[in-house]
């Protein structure tokens, strides 16, 4: 006998299915729902004709836009492309979906905030992006919600998880190769485990009332980039990885020469609205990060017994 699904089966379309988040969404929802994944080759967010051709033949209840142009510095010097992919394309998707009476979820970013607030941002705080990337994502939010106020915008930040390496793997590899490592010590935000994120989605999408409007969604508790990096390398050292750097030096975010686009100094987000809607509080970032690292391929490489090599 087949297991009973905890949620009535839905027909779901995932746009950006070949990306980090899109691929995990397909795995997460595929067991209980009818899921159609659309990669960039199948639906190009920057091309209206591609969007129409991909979506018009489909029948679906929910559509999740997980794809985006996320290179913050690339966007800064390629504004037209950024707005086409992050705003105009999602707006067209929401328009088509409204005609099918289908709900749209659009993943946005903490970079819609300007960073001037000392406390974590709530959804009631006015967005004021200071980069092309942030502006393009805010425009995408507006277009998706204009197509239907019943649609959902999820602002997420500092994503990491299984699949493609992200910040935790990068900083640990760097600290294993170099004794002196620096990271912005005044840049504050909230990291988000994609594993946790997937667990936080069902109450929004499959509950008695499907969520609408804007929600912040991330692990609980703010930290600086330096503190996040220090936590990662301390965890790696405790697990026996050959970490050379003892202490990560904090530097001003504006001093990083590789950054073309401005970053908000504080983009930490409150998830109080999510908790009020679902009754669930996201777990703290340290617990989520530690669990991910302990199960990561990076740690597994360093914990293989010598006899097995």
Describe this structure in words.
This protein has 309 residues and is α/β, with parallel strands linked by helices. It has a domain at 11-164 and 191-220 and 269-283: NAD(P)-binding Rossmann-like Domain (Rossmann fold). Helices cover 39% and strands 15% of the residues. It contains twelve helices and twelve strands. A six-stranded parallel beta sheet has the order 2-1-3-4-5-10, sandwiched between helices. Helix 1 (20-29) links the parallel strand 1 (11-15) and strand 2. Helix 2 (48-55) runs parallel beside helix 4, helix 4 (79-99) packs parallel to helix 5 and helix 6 (167-177) packs across helix 9. The N and C termini lie far apart (43 Å).
Tell me the layout of helices and strands.
Blueprint: E1 11-15, H1 20-29, E2 34-38, H2 48-55, E3 62-65, H3 72-76, H4 79-99, E4 103-109, H5 132-147, E5 152-156, E6 159-160, H6 167-177, E7 181-184, E8 188-189, E9 192-193, H7 194-200, H8 202-205, E10 213-216, E11 223-224, H9 225-238, E12 248-251, H10 272-278, H11 285-295, H12 297-302
Parallel strand pairs: 1-2, 1-3, 3-4, 4-5, 5-10, 6-9, 7-12
Antiparallel strand pairs: 8-11
Quaternary structure classification:
single chain
Return Rg in Å: 20 Å
Q: What is the helix/strand order?
A: EHEHEHHEHEEHEEEHHEEHEHHH
Mean pLDDT: 94
**Mass-distribution shape:** globular
Low-confidence parts, pLDDT < 50 over ≥5 residues? 1-5, 304-309
The CATH homologous superfamily name of the domain at 11-164 and 191-220 and 269-283 equals: NAD(P)-binding Rossmann-like Domain
Number of helices: 12
**Main sheet properties:** 6 strands, parallel
Strands across the major sheet, in which order?
A: 2-1-3-4-5-10
Please give the number of β-strands. Answer: 12
């Amino acid at each position: 006998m087949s297991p009973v699904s905890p949620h009535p089966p839905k027909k779901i379309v995932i746009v950006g299915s070949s990306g980090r988040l899109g691929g995990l969404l397909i795995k997460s929802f595929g067991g209980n729902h009818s899921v159609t994944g659309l990669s960039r080759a199948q639906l190009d967010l920057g091309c209206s004709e591609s969007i129409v051709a991909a979506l018009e033949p489909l029948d679906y209840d929910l559509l999740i836009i997980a794809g985006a142009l996320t290179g913050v510095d690339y966007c800064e010097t390629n504004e037209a492309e950024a707005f086409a992919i992050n705003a105009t394309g999602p707006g067209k998707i929401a328009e088509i979906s409204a005609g099918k009476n289908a709900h749209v979820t659009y993943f946005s970013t903490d970079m819609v905030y300007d960073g001037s607030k000392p406390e974590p941002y709530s959804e009631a705080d006015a967005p004021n992006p200071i980069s092309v990337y942030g502006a393009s994502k805010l425009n995408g939010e507006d277009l998706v919600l204009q197509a239907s106020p019943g649609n959902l915008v999820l602002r997420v930040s500092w994503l990491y998880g299984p699949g493609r390496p992200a910040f935790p793997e990068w900083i640990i590899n760097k600290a294993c190769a170099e004794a002196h490592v620096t990271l912005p010590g005044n840049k504050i935000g909230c990291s988000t485990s994609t594993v946790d994120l997937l667990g936080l989605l069902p109450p929004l999408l499959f509950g008695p009332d499907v969520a609408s409007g804007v929600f912040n969604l991330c692990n609980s508790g703010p930290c600086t980039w330096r503190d996040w990096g220090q936590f990662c390398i301390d965890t790696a050292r405790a697990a026996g990885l050959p970490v050379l750097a003892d202490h990560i030096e904090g530097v001003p975010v504006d001093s990083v020469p590789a950054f073309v686009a401005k970053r908000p100094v504080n983009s930490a987000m409150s998830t109080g609205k999510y908790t009020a809607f679902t009754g669930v509080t996201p777990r703290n970032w340290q617990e989520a990060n530690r669990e991910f690292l302990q199960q990561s391929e990076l740690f597994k490489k360093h914990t293989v017994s010598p006899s097995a090599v």
